[in-house]
Specification:
2 copies of one chain form a homodimer.
Chain A (H helix, E strand, L loop, with lengths): L6 E5 L3 H12 L4 E5 L3 H10 L3 E2 L3 H5 L4 E4 L6 H11 L5 E4 L5 H13 L7 E6 L20 E5 L6 H13 L3 E4 L2 H33 L2 H5 L2 H7 L6 H10 L1 H24 L2 H18 L8 E8 L5 H11 L6 E5 L7 E8 L3 H10 L4 E3 L6
Parallel strand pairs in A: 1-2, 1-4, 2-3, 4-5, 5-6, 7-8
Antiparallel strand pairs in A: 6-7, 9-11, 9-12, 10-11
Chain lengths: 373, 373
């Protein structure tokens, strides 16, 4: 078999499977077959022309070089067993589930029990999604520029990783390899821990606001809004995510609570030098982890807005026509639901020009600070 | 004296003092005098026509009904002493410093030592600012719709609060009264604690990224970006803010660490019901504290953008022309600095229409989720 996959079978024609089918076809993969156990999903896949649609799994995987298991995590081991029973003995398997440690162990064990080489499987996790589900939502550009993590184990054949990576790069994804455990740890740190941190913040502020009426709401600034935004997410969904990654989330929480203890300790002891060292290290980490679009200093220009369609367009059009690049954008709503403001981040070099351009449109503008002097 | 201030003296002609002078004049206050110990600041105030400019403090406050101490916190007690020596014995004093507990005690003690009734003073904190300083940046609309907190003590005369509130409402501010201590506690909770929480998050992720290369950066999603955004703030500035409000920040940190301990405990014990109860309470608190502009459900439409001026305007103009209200806006930059995306939050009712309008402009769009399925 060539290291370039020529025949790709996708089991599960939902958002991820359907989008992958479209992306593979757009990338010129010669044979793309999709199947789904749900006849309605197969029907939509056929109507949308996502790919060749097979009526059942054995037919779909019969000639495959690579089989993508785009099915829910809970059924991946069973579906993997069905696939190896019907696919060529050289076929490579990968999945798209969002947690990897336990699942990879389960799939490899299942293959071993069946006398199948577990080195033919590599776990995967595309860092892309949409709130819409099903083949109706399939989007061939979903993975363009997205990161797709692969999680090889010591049993995984290098050839397996090479073939799957090649396919993913071909559809425009950025491939990163991590061990399954490291994947779950990092997702815990950058996705699951922030959720818990934001929830705890919103909860303590909520308790205070129960006593202080609407005062908290009136004084909560942009910093509070940003740090707690994801706390408003669906609690049942997050219960599932956090408990699914329990050990890694607990480890991340431990590290986080340790860091908060360091900060509290420095503050309590009056060790203000140490406090500044910790804040500086954090500030440098944030700047390194989430680089700004531009490299130089930026300012947020605040444009007073009516909460009506149209005003926003006046501001952005005026900047666009003046050739001023908007590096970031946010809206700030008035506490009482009245007038809001648009925050437009521009390079500090063009600050004065941005202000003039906006003022020329009759807009009230000023440059923002996070903390009032 | 009437409860409506007719003669307002402002000591300190910087951003806050100068903006207040402009706002008072615009609101029709008959006499507004501003002074500043810096001759250059007085000169700018005069040139900009902020108000009548007095050469020295005694001249400025000579006939005042209300004197606003728009000077740095460290000199407020001294300036208050200078003011009571020169102002009418009925004049009311207020300040604009961002922390109130210690300062209010200091000012009241100083007045008492001078044999002056401390009931004539009430502390204040306007929740508004700009990164520009000095009278050059003065903006008569700075306090329009902003919250201005007053912090009376048991010694403060009701008349004092009544007069200052009346003046502030006249310039369009929203006045809230809190005890000095409660003010500092709430600011600790909604501004200072989020800073520490974000810094600790960025720091633990930064440590992981030191081991994991640029992987953390590649997998950090919108939740991580939002929760850690303010961690990039200036560490020296924040050292000053946190140490200035030490007891309240420590109390807020205690409450926060307690909440994190509850969440970690539920997760560690496998008490998933309890975990969901805590997450639900947090989600409800966030929704209550930061209500969305619209009341109903919303969706974030993701528009693929080139990082060029103009494309942004095409999207917002098309929505404006279609009468679709943009409830929130954010930009998402590609990890590698290439193509980015615009997140446009619209009411869920108009989702399909928003998608069509944007697609008609040749833009690639989809609806976002926080967590990939």
């Amino acid at each position: 078999m060539n290291v370039v996959a020529e025949r790709v079978a996708i089991v599960g024609g939902g958002l991820i499977g359907g989008s992958l089918a479209l992306a593979c076809r757009a990338a010129g993969v010669p044979e793309v077959v999709v199947t789904d156990r749900d006849p309605a999903a197969r029907q939509v896949a056929r109507e949308r022309g996502l790919a060749e649609v097979a009526e059942d799994l054995p037919t779909a995987v019969r000639d495959a070089d690579v089989v993508v298991l785009a099915v829910p995590a809970a059924v991946v081991p069973d579906v993997a067993a069905d696939v190896v029973a019907a696919a060529p003995s050289t076929a490579i398997l990968t999945d798209v589930a969002s947690l990897k440690s336990d699942l990879t162990v389960d799939v490899e064990s299942r293959l071993r029990v069946l006398g199948v080489d577990p080195g033919r499987f590599v776990g995967g996790h595309p860092m892309a999604g949409s709130e819409r589900a099903g083949p109706e939502a399939a989007d061939g550009a979903l993975f363009q520029g997205a990161t797709w993590i692969l999680t090889p184990t010591p049993d995984t054949h290098p050839h397996t990783v090479q073939v799957v990576s090649g396919l993913l790069r071909r559809i425009g994804a950025r491939v990163l390899a991590l061990t399954p455990r490291r994947h779950d740890e990092l997702v815990a740190l950058v996705s699951h821990l922030p959720q818990v941190a934001a929830s705890a913040l919103a909860d303590v502020a909520g308790e205070a606001s129960a006593e202080a009426g609407e005062v908290v709401l009136a004084i909560a600034g942009g910093g509070f809004r940003d740090t707690t935004r994801i706390a408003a997410s669906d609690a049942t969904l997050w219960r599932g995510i956090l408990t699914g990654n329990r050990p890694a989330v607990l480890a991340a929480l431990d590290a986080y609570r340790g860091r908060l203890a360091d900060l509290a300790d420095a503050l309590a002891r009056g060790d203000d030098e140490r406090l500044e060292v910790l804040l500086t290290r954090a500030s440098e980490a944030r700047r390194r982890l989430v680089p700004k679009a531009g490299d130089g200093p930026v300012v947020d220009v605040v444009v007073a807005l009516d909460d009506r369609p149209g005003t926003l367009a006046v501001a952005t059009t005026a900047l666009g026509e003046a050739g001023i690049n908007v590096e970031d954008l946010a809206m700030r709503h008035a506490v009482d639901g009245g007038r809001g403001a648009l925050l437009v981040r521009v390079s500090a070099d063009v600050r004065d020009r941005a202000l003039s351009v906006l003022e020329a449109q009759g807009l009230a503008v000023h440059v923002d600070v996070e903390e009032a002097p």
